[in-house]
Amino acid sequence: MLYPQRLGQFTREHADTVAALLCGLLLFLGWFALHLGALGLALLLLPAAYVIGGYESAREGLTTLFKEKELDVDLLMIVAAIGAASLGLWRREYHLIIDGAILILIFAISGALEGYAMQRTERSIRSLMSLTPDTARVLHQGREEEIPVSQLKVGDEIVVKPGELIPTDGIILSGYSTLNQAAITGESLPVEKTVGAEVFAGTLNGYGGLQIKVHKPAQSSLIVRVIRLVEQAKTEAPPSQEFIDRFEKGYAKVIVVAGILLATLPPFLWGWDWETTIYRALTFLVVASPCALMAAIMPTLLSGIANGARQGILFKNGAQLEKIGKVRAIAFDKTGTLTTGQVEVFQVISVSEYTKINVLKTAASVESYSEHPIGKAIVQAAGNLDWVGAVQVQAIPGQGIVGIAQEQHVIVGNAVFVQQYVTNLPEELREMAQSLEQEGKTVVWVAQGNRGAEVMGIIAIADEVRVEAAVTITRLKKLGIEQIVMLTGDNQETAYSIAKAVGIDRVYAQLLPEDKLDVIRRLQQQYQTVAMVGDGINDAPALAQASVGIAMGVSGSDVALETADIVLMADRLEKIAVAMHLGRRSQSIVKQNIFVALGFIMLLLLGNFLGNINLPIGVIGHEGSTVLVTLSGLRLLK
Fold first, then answer.
1. Global pTM value
2. For residue 632, which of 311, 292, 238 has the smallest C-alpha distance?
3. Cys-Cys with 593: which of 296, 303, 481, 515 at CB 3.0–4.6 Å?
4. φ/ψ of residue 460, rounded to 5
5. Which of 333, 463, 539, 571 is catalytic?
């Protein structure tokens, strides 16, 4: 019973191949019957070859014709084959029926080969979907229970044993292990993880057992978002493909009109006989069809998207793969992008009326509502202190945050922001703040009071520069990026200190989100294609405005991730240069493919008018160029 089942499954999975094989077999038998003089048998076998080999193309072509009122290349192939068969029956030159059947056979073989070629890209994308297990081991009252991953809820505690895949994103509650994140982030080396660290679905646990708390719904995990976005990218045609699609629709109409003229005028103009005229018109329909041109772009871009996903670079659609290769200027956010974003409180300085603990507790009361890395660092530093969360909290991106704690207005932010609420900033604190900023520290001012707030002190935040930042900037300059700038809401001294460390010459500091937007617009006026790299909510407007928005996948806020066009899933800045190289290679391959496709069309057309090619040779040239272009596009899978 298993054999029929397996045969049915094979037939469904390889329908194009089976159809091509049957078509070839029937064609051979029909030719052999014709060779033996069994005309009746040949005229039974050859139409069957036409139907089996050409059914799918005819169905797609007629569907396009009746539903979209457009001519399709598939339909042109079928018309050419039927035309050859009709001509053969009319003139009793039955070898023309063989020619038409060969046309359909080669077209069917080409379709099967293209299908297998595209399946390589599909497999690369589908391999992402096999990264997560179907079930998870959940702890219920001290006992382990295996349930489907889809039934996991926020707050569930799951157990992952050594060598198992992590079933969903979560936070480690207990245990220590190394995790292989290569499939998700592209990192080649395993990463050490312990209590408090975030783990991602689809990563492979090493030697240690882990107890993990689910902190977001399973459908919101990083790998699920990746799969969703890559699947979406497959269905969205980039501008170049949309142009080719529009061109193909008009071009098909031109081919039909030209084919009709070629089938009717030569006997009157040049004295051709009708058989030669119709035969060359049918050959023209085949060789002039833009199949190779249609395959010049999407296989290449889909291969590039799959390649990027394997390396931890998520392109949301093919248009962004095209654009990243054309970038001439790039802007970087500072905190969480050029720096690690893993900031910590370096020093707390208070005025004489307050203690350092007072300053820290007051700042934490409002910063506990902030998503910013600086706010999280302050809350973490105040973790063991007894403080009460504020109410009526309002964050002003790029400036600071205000709220009411213990019936007192609390203001936390940069000097310019806090100065709006206080009468003056103590000179001694100003000097200390300036000194700390020159060392590359970020200074947060803290003030409170209902009638005329007064400064309580300052908190110095240390943010480590990413190890790979300087190398990335150097690589981008070598790639020919004309302008690299840094955008930050931080002060001038800190901004220039970080910029100098990584090799950026142009700095825009003390910016609000709308200011970052304006800088991107000015860069676009000068350089046209501009990329923006950021991670926070305050970067979202600039990411949206940029020609290519690039977000940090791990440290990035949800708003930044949704707004960006490309996501660096491991926060690895050096992947930007890899993405640009992929973009440039894809453009180069697309141009090569278009050149090859147009070159083949021109050569075949010339050969047809000179009378040097017959219908089967025209089909081989036409379909061969299509397969060649498709395989060329798949080079990006390497």
1. 0.64
2. 292
3. 296
4. -90, 130
5. 333
Per the annotation, the verdict on 333 as an active-site residue is yes
DSSP assignment of 332-398, as one string?
EEIIIIIB-S--EEEEEEE-TTS-HHHHHHHHHHHHTT--SHHHHHHHHHTTTS-----EEEEEETT
Nearest to 107 by CA among 60, 162, 65: 60
Tens of pLDDT, residue by residue over 459-491, are: 998 878 888 899 999 999 999 999 999 998 777
- Whether the Cβ atoms of residue 303 and residue 321 lie closer than 8 Å to each other: no
569-625 residue pLDDT tens = 777 889 999 999 999 999 899 889 889 888 888 888 888 777 677 777 777 787 778
What string of DSSP letters covers 171-215? Answer: EEEE--EEEE-HHHH--SS-EEE-TT-EE-TTPEE-SS-EEEEE-
Which token pair is 44?
A: 């039974």
Rg (alpha carbons) of the chain, rounded to whole number? 33
- The amino acid at residue 504 is I
pLDDT digits (tens, 9 = 90+) for 623-632: 778 778 888 8
CB 195 within 8 A of CB 173: yes
Whole-number Å distance between alpha carbons of 444 and 413: 5
- Lookup result for tokens 């060329």: 632
Residue 270 vs residues 264, 265, 605: alpha-carbon distances, Å: 11, 8, 18
Q: Which amino acid is at 261?
A: L
| Residue in this structure with the two tokens 């840094």, named with its chain if needed | 486
Contacts of 166 (CB under 8 A, 6+ apart): 160, 179, 199, 200, 201, 202, 203, 204, 205, 212
For β-strands 143-148 and 135-140, DSSP reports them as: antiparallel
Closest CA to 358 of 390, 384, 385, 395: 385
In the chain, what is the straight-line distance between the N-terminal and C-terminal CA atoms, in Å? 41
- Residue type at position 196: G
